[in-house]
Amino acid sequence: MLFGDDHVKRYEETDGEVGYEWLKGSKILVLTTTGRKSGEPRKSALIFGEHGGHYVVVASKGGAPEHPDWYKNLVAQPEVRVQVKADRFPARARTATGEERSALWATMAHEWPDYDDYQRKTEREIPVVVLERLS
After folding, report:
1. Which GO terms of the cellular component aspect does the record hold (predicted)?
2. What's the CA gap between 77 and 70, in Å, rounded?
3. Class for domain 4-133, per CATH?
4. Alpha-carbon Rg for the chain in angstroms
5. Are 47 and 27 in contact (CB under 8 A)?
6. pLDDT of residue 8
7. Each residue's pLDDT tens digit, 7-44
8. Which of 2, 62, 76, 86 could form a disulfide with 7 if both were Cys (CB 3.0 to 4.6 A apart)?
9. Dihedral over alpha carbons 86, 16, 90, 25 (to 10 degrees)
10. Would you give the DSSP letter of residue 1?
11. Cα distance between the two ends of the chain
């Protein structure tokens, strides 16, 4: 089972042939953010969904009380890089709000039903992030 840095490494080495499909039929992309403190690239393998021609990810951190670092990084610098299989491209990340967030949450809970459990475990509203391709 692939997790963390090993997941990212195998995904990148194989253009997603290894690591794109994950648990329970979920699909994975690699998100590269810029470290808000270090300025260095930071990569995360994340479950994603699609909506309106954009990719969508959830900053759940398993229902932890604080947001994941990758989310904090993209809030500080919303210009990111995305890899879906062999397709690599720049994107702008934004946090969905209101009705859009509700609709996207439903989409993502279908992709990974555990998200509903994660939300129940924490007092924070788990962010839903839209990745809008720039090129």
Report:
1. plasma membrane
2. 10
3. mainly beta
4. 14
5. yes
6. 95
7. 999 999 999 999 999 988 899 999 999 999 999 999 99
8. 2
9. 130
10. -
11. 33
Which two three-digit tokens encode residue 81?
């890089």
Q: How far apart, in whole angstroms, are the C-alpha atoms of residue 24 and residue 22?
A: 7
What does the block give as tokens for 75? 């809030």
Please say whether the dihedral angle defined by the alpha carbons of residues 2, 41, 36 and 51, taken in this order, is positive or negative. Answer: negative
Q: Report pLDDT for 25.
A: 85
Chain segment 9-18, per-residue pLDDT in tens: 999 999 999 9
Q: Which residue has the tokens 């039929």?
A: 25
Q: Residue ranges of the domains in the chain? A: 4-133
Element containing residue 74 per DSSP (H, E): helix 69-76
Contact 35, 73 (CB under 8 A): yes
Does 1 score more than 70 pLDDT?
A: no
Residue 103 half-sphere exposure toward CB, CA atoms < 13 A: 9
Neighbouring-strand partners of residue 58: 128
